[in-house]
Amino acid sequence: MANITAARINNLQNRISLIHGQGAGQNGYGQTLASSQVSSVESEVKADDLNNIYVDILNARVHQVGVGGLGVNSIDKVVSGSNTVAQDTSAFLSDNGLLTDDPDGFKKGIADYEALMTLIEEQKFVLSPLQSEQSLKLTDIRSATWNGLIYQLFTVTFNDADHRRHFFNSGGQIRIAASNSAARTQKGLDWAQLLGQVGTVSFSYSNTTANATQVSTVGNYDLTTSYQQIYYKAGTGYTSPIYENNTFKINAREVSDSKIEFKIEFNDTVFDNVVDNNVDGRLESNVQLYIAKGNYVSVEDPTFSITTSVSGFDSPAEINKSPEYSIGVDLARNQYEIENLNGQQYASVDYVVNAVNVPYPITLYWDTETVSGNVTAADFDDNTLSGSITITAAYTQAERTINRTLLADNFTEGTESFRLRLYTDASLSSFVDSTGVVTIVDNSVGVTPAPTPTYSITSSTSTISEGSSSTYTVSTTNVPNGTLYWTTTGSGITAGDFTDGTLSGTVTMTSGSGTFTRTTRADVTTEGSEVFDIQLRTGSTNGTVVLTAGNGAATYISDTSLTPPSATFLSNSGTSVTATQAGIYKWTAPSHIDSVTVYSVGGGGAGYTNGGGGGGGGGYGSSTISVIPGQTYDVAVGVGAGNSAGGNTYFKTLNTVSGRGGSQGSYVSNNTQLSPGASGGGFVGTNGGNGGAGGAGYWTYGGGGGGGAGGYAGNGGTGGTGGRSISGIAATNGTAGTGGAGGGGGGGGSVSPSYGAGGGGGVGAGGINSGSGTFGTANGAYGTGGAGGSLGANGATGTTTGGTGGNYGGGGGASGGSAGGAAPGASGAIKLTWDAVPAPTPTIVPAISTSSSNLQFTSPSGVRPSPQRITFTSNAAVTVTGISVSQSSASATSIDYTGALGVPSGVANFSVTPSSSKYIDVTFYRFGSSGTSTLTISTTAGTKVVQLNWTAEVVQTPTYSMTVDSGRAGYPTVGNETTYSAFVYTVTTTNVPNGTVLYWVNKQTFSPAPISANDVNGLTGTVTISNNSGSFTRTAVADATTESGTEFFGTELRTGSVAGPVVRTAIYAAIQDTSLTPAAPVPTYNPSISLPTSVTRGETFAYAINGGAPGTTWTANNGISEATGTFDNSGDFSGTTVINSAGSYTYVVTYSDPTSTTDTFNITVVDPEPVSQDTPVTVSPTSKSIEINPGTQIAAASFVVTNPTDETLNISVQEISRLTGTNTGISAPSFVLAPGATRRVGVAGNTSNLNANTYTFNFGILAAGYPGTYPTFSLVLYRQ
């Protein structure tokens, strides 16, 4: 077993000193060492030397791995006197001198120490979490919105460069984390996601990590004075891809060797919604310190400081506050029919809805879209595929959550998928967002596959008219009870085609059946026929289509509600308008009228064929009615029918003014009977007449004549009867029609050949009948037409067909025999007349007016009130020629003419025109209670009088009073500093407005005990008046100070400020001194004695007694001798003494101060012993190794000896040890070394003819007079 050299021990100590001690560069924890270098000239290494190294090694290793982390690398101390450390691992030398295994299992060999030291060096930057401490050092919060680049700057300051090294070398880290909570906008939520993914960024000695993954190779030892990026992350696009350009960045730089600066950048670069919205939420940046704080290694905290805060940046204005909506999956993208929470298989999943920049509360709507498979309401526990959610201003997580929970249906369905869609309206037409695709995992399987649902639909009719309904019956199989959704399809079909204004809806299914009805709208629009169809959906009206169009629900709409004809506007210029063409018209009443006269003639009815009856004449109605200027009215002109009754003519309505149309003639298919003529049209109006009736005819013989139109003064004439010639019956000829007040009746058709009858006479649209129309005749052939009434046309003479009716309103004649068709009646007509535009109003006589004829003034007596203004206006040019004043005594009237003349004073002479008004400002008041004054204003258009009245204002003078109450019964103005310390002041006022602020001020006039701000809570304050009352409190301070008895103070009220006018003089109160100065404590003293416990006989040594009572004395007695002394003003005493006899002494120390207790101390006096002083020189280096080749026998080296003392030394260099058979050489074996001087010494080793591998030569450097230990130099020669 080889010996362990001091060099090996010292090398190990150097290694642990470099790591655990002060160290240098990237080495050193900065801890105090237990170990030190050992001497190389002592005969043995003491156990304590190695055990001190053991302590340092153990402290460093436990710092790295924790108390329980040593494992197989455990080492143990060496027991002094029991064993000797062996070079070999895990062995020790027993008492009988044998090398044996360590019975305790611990490793005490120096090689074990060295092996563990190697691990410590390899893991020198490791810090066990059990030996660390983490603490929050900085928090920076921003609640305001932000935009663009904002950042936080903070510094970490160390005591010095070594402190910084020790912090990072011992595993210290600066940890940074950020978050953005309570965000509502999509941008804010994306920042929250980004910062959440960043996690904690840790800056250490040589790199930077995030969530235990290295993100940068820049650490403490890489810093320069310029910023370097240690972390970077871009936006996640969690809520939208446009946010992927946002960035979070951390930079670091070295400010000095003891200070580091970090810059945390939040850069919002995204433009969304066309403009750049701000980031909302609570942005928080936290800085934590991770540091060695164990029992084995502990480093002092550096200091942290924020120099720029994220809250310090201005909040930009929101350019746009567009509403934002989102819906997202909270936990997973998969849902399972059977839940396994430990396996993160969720049947119940929450979907979170966000809505910002919207008015709260807001209700949003959602539905389910099937992406694959057959997702139905029966898949979920609430048996629905749609719903709504209401979000309030509270914006809680619970109210923003939609829960969807799957049912375990025990059917084998396979994988299905869906997404939830979000809308802002109940009709689900305004889509705003959707979730991603969620997969339903079918882990609830059965023996049989899920039954396939079927859907069918039938309609109650295939064709409906506008305004009608159709009922649809839906039938299903394998579909649970609940709600299905239907939507309407069809080219050109809109919601306006239906009475409910919608194209979608629901149908409730019960036991596989349900019905709903669609009703079309009569839209009064010509469209042509249309067709619509129904399709069925699940989930919502936007849900999955389960029955397409073309499966039994197609329905045709007949276009039966057509667009009414368009109306033409009749002229309203001039004084009349006439319309003679059948049709619908509009007429707008001119602005200058309020009535119109209407003349209306209805259309004539048509005669009948084959000898039928003649058509009736149109009625004639006329009246003057009221109208509203500018209002539009309906007008209609009746058609002259060719094969039907005549049309009605009217103004406004049929029942306002109208001429009704004549009826069509009829027939009796029996030529022995007369076919009756048609009735004439009626009328509505103050004047007019009915149309004449058509004449009767004989079937297949002579037709009846047409009836005449009614007239202004009466009825129209009747048509003549047709003739006939029948075998066995006497033949008759046609008869003439009758005359009428309107048109005359047409003549009847002749007997043979059978000719048509004449048409009835017409009447002028606006004619006033000056005579009746004459009748038509039957001339043996064709019946002649009846003559027209006033301004009317004659009826036409009959031909083979009947004669047409005369304009306007004449009835048509019937045809004779079977020769042709019957003649049409004439169309109606209408005429409107109204007054002409009135002539311009003659020029008016000039007139002038004033804005007021009576002015009321109010002010305190003798005080000038505010002026009042009189404005002059005129309809023509008028001159004001003068204004005179008549007033009561002791009155004052002043007139300011600036608004009339341009200057305040002058002679009243100014003009007023319609385009230029003028004004004067008048002031009137007097001394007294009331007064009057009269202004007489003379003008070229007459005189105006303005009355002025003044009343003295009743001044409401405010009053102020104040009381005080200390709460002490019977003594409201007396309090004290403890039990009655609150003085409550009540202020009562009159005529003081609510909200008036009064000021109270301390008033001090009493002596000799004035008060200060230390005696009460302030010397000024305010009180606000409400309903003429207010209160405030002044509180006496319990100051624990004995003062000069009772103190007095006053309180007064002021207005405006604490220096304003006094409105309530001071009321005084007294404070009794009940909070006294506590008695000073009696000091006690406990002196302490300091002196050595052992001295050498005859040695002078120092001693001291501290903490005694100043000026008192002490006495020390050991039974043989006695010493005494006096404490100085600080209670201290110090001195020196000597004891000349060896032995142990016990001293009893007593004190004159009664509070000091007696002390006892022991001291040992020993005889002096000679001292072997060590040689004080130093040697550098202390050893040298030289390789010698075969055959080489000698090699030399040199070293330097230094004298660090202040005395001259006689030095000798001597051989200490060498291998037997070798020789040494020494150059300068002795010399004199002056103080601070150095000397180089050469030594050589001669190996002779020996062939050993290693030769060691030891040399000692001795100084005369120093018999103690001395430094050595070792020369080692070895062969390779």
Question: How would you briefly describe this protein structure?
Answer:
With 1280 residues, the chain is mainly beta. The protein contains 6 helices and 80 strands.
Mean pLDDT: 84
Strands of the widest sheet, in order across it, are 3-12-5-6-7-8
Overall 3D shape: elongated
Percent of residues in β-strands: 35-45%
- Cα separation of the termini: 23 Å
Helix coverage percent of residues? under 10%
Largest sheet: 6 strands, antiparallel
SSE diagram, text form:
Blueprint: H1 6-20, H2 47-65, E1 91-93, E2 99-101, H3 110-122, E3 132-142, E4 148-157, H4 161-169, E5 173-181, H5 186-198, E6 200-203, E7 208-210, E8 213-216, E9 228-234, E10 247-256, E11 259-268, E12 282-292, E13 303-308, E14 324-329, E15 334-336, E16 348-356, E17 362-372, E18 386-391, E19 401-405, E20 416-423, E21 431-434, E22 438-441, E23 454-459, E24 463-465, E25 469-477, E26 482-489, E27 504-509, E28 513-519, E29 530-538, E30 544-547, E31 555-558, E32 568-569, E33 576-579, E34 583-588, E35 595-601, E36 620-626, E37 632-637, E38 649-651, E39 657-659, E40 674-675, E41 683-684, E42 687-689, E43 697-698, E44 724-726, E45 729-732, E46 829-833, E47 848-850, E48 854-859, E49 868-874, E50 878-887, E51 891-896, H6 898-901, E52 910-912, E53 918-926, E54 930-939, E55 942-952, E56 959-965, E57 974-976, E58 982-990, E59 997-1003, E60 1020-1024, E61 1029-1035, E62 1047-1055, E63 1062-1072, E64 1088-1090, E65 1094-1096, E66 1100-1106, E67 1113-1117, E68 1122-1126, E69 1133-1138, E70 1143-1151, E71 1159-1166, E72 1178-1180, E73 1183-1187, E74 1194-1202, ...
Parallel strand pairs: 15-22, 24-31, 32-34, 48-55, 57-63, 65-71, 73-80
Antiparallel strand pairs: 1-2, 3-12, 4-11, 4-13, 5-6, 5-12, 6-7, 7-8, 9-10, 10-11, 14-16, 16-19, 17-18, 17-20, 20-21, 20-22, 23-25, 25-28, 26-27, 26-29, 29-30, 29-31, 33-46, 34-37, 35-36, 35-46, 36-42, 37-38, 38-39, 39-41, 40-43, 44-45, 47-49, 49-53, 50-52, 50-54, 51-53, 54-55, 56-58, 58-61, ...
Helix pairs in contact: 1-2, 1-3, 2-3
